[in-house]
């Protein structure tokens, strides 16, 4: 005798319309602690703690060494100017480059300059002289501070030598300074006045945080619906679900654009209406892609396991931390399938650079197209009459059998 309990149809809020589906999806998020943590808790925590590591913006007094192989008044002057530079601090002066390398390997210093033997003699003769600078390339901020600090010190000493030579040829001090630098150049970072690393990286990473948290949360929630059989629903129900995911994503986006950037004083507000238009296109594309991936995985745990390790590769192909030209050509094309690629480029133009909406319109069009295609695929795959994917069918059957017993 067959005693297998037939599967019980799971009620869906499709009869309640779009508003009912939206409220039902929000209530599901609130009851699911894992999804709630990803969609609400993670953006808030990242917003406070991630920028905290870059609060200093610019590093100062980085420990360095000077390898003096010349032992002249000129080499000692370079050492004094290096120690006076606010970026670096000379902790070691030695005549052995090997000793400086070992100090660098031990982490006692972050770089060193090698003043070659015969430097002063070459300068007096008017010959070219080179001061080599070695820095810790594993950390971009430390490397930049060491390179800039030594470059400023050597450049200042070099300018003084040139001015003294011009004065020796009969020019007055003002004439010598004017001859040495006929055109005064003042460089100002227009959109990053402090030239800080945090102001450079956090506004772009914020778009990645919005994407990854919403993408994983949407995939997990959809995977839960697949496991319980609730993914078979009408188009109205799915539109309400996607709207609920977008509501949480928009709230997180406004939290970053409207408060986090202000709290940490990052460049912002260049085009507020353009930034709102970006969020209106960016968040739905992510929500639809996350729901589509959740349908494909058919399991909430698998969705989290797979998507958790995609953050770093996505950051590399976004176009702000790694030159796009250095990527393989197929990757340069495939990266546009990710919302973050267009989102980061549009955000930097609208929110930081203050560009008009027309300058970011191609990126917004890509986001709209991506969101439309993914949402259409979700509605097609999740309609009640469509066949179940094998993995999803097995997971659904196992869940019903577990509930039956």
What does this entry look like structurally?
- The chain has 405 residues and is mainly α.
- The protein folds into 2 domains: 23-54 and 196-382; 62-180, abc type-2 transporter like fold (3-Layer(aba) Sandwich).
- It is 64% helix and 6% strand.
- The protein has helices spanning 17-31, 33-49, 73-84, 97-105, 119-125, 140-168, 173-180, 197-228, 235-263, 272-297, 300-307, 311-317, 329-334, 339-352, 357-381, 390-404, and strands at residues 62-68, 88-94, 111-115, 132-135.
- It has a 4-stranded mixed β-sheet, with helices on both faces.
- Helix 2 packs parallel to helix 9 (235-263), helix 8 (197-228) runs antiparallel to helix 14 and helix 14 (339-352) runs antiparallel to helix 15 (357-381).
- The longest helix is centred in the middle third of the chain and has 32 residues, at 197-228.
- The two termini are 17 Å apart.
- Residues 1-15 have low confidence and may be disordered.
């Amino acid at each position: 005798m067959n005693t297998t309990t037939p599967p019980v149809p799971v009620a869906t809020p499709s009869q309640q319309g779009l508003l009912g589906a939206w409220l039902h999806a929000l209530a599901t998020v609130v009851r699911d602690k894992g999804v709630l943590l990803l969609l609400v808790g993670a953006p808030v925590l990242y917003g406070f703690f991630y920028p905290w590591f870059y609060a200093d913006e610019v590093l100062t007094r980085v420990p360095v060494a000077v390898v003096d192989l010349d032992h002249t008044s000129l080499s000692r002057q370079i050492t004094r100017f290096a120690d006076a530079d606010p970026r670096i601090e000379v902790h070691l002066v030695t005549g052995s480059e090997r000793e400086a390398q070992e100090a660098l390997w031990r982490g006692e210093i972050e770089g060193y300059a090698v003043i070659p033997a015969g430097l002063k003699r070459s300068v007096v003769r008017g010959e070219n002289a080179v001061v080599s600078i070695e820095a810790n390339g594993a950390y971009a901020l430390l490397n930049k501070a060491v390179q800039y600090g030594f470059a400023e010190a050597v450049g200042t000493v070099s300018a003084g030598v040139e001015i003294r030579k011009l004065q020796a040829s009969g020019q007055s001090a003002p004439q010598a300074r004017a001859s040495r630098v006929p055109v005064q150049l003042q460089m100002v970072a227009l959109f990053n006045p402090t030239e800080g690393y945090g102001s450079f990286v956090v506004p772009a990473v914020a778009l990645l945080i919005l994407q990854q948290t919403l993408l994983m949360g949407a995939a997990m929630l959809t995977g839960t619906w697949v496991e319980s059989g609730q993914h078979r629903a009408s188009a109205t129900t799915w539109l309400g679900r996607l709207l609920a995911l977008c509501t949480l994503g928009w709230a997180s986006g406004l939290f970053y654009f409207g408060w986090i950037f202000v709290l940490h004083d990052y460049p912002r507000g260049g085009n507020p209406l353009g930034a709102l238009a970006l969020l209106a296109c960016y968040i739905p594309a992510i929500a639809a892609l996350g729901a589509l991936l959740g349908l494909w995985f058919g399991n909430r745990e698998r969705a989290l396991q797979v998507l958790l390790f995609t953050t770093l590769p996505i950051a590399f192909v976004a176009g702000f931390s790694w030159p796009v030209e250095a990527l393989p050509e197929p990757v340069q094309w495939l990266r546009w399938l990710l919302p973050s690629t267009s989102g980061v480029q549009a955000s930097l133009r609208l929110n930081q650079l203050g560009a008009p909406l027309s300058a970011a319109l191609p990126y917004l069009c890509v986001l709209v197209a991506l969101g439309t295609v993914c949402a259409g695929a979700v509605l097609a795959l999740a309609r009640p009459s469509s066949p179940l994917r094998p993995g999803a069918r097995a997971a659904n059957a196992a869940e019903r059998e577990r509930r039956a017993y």
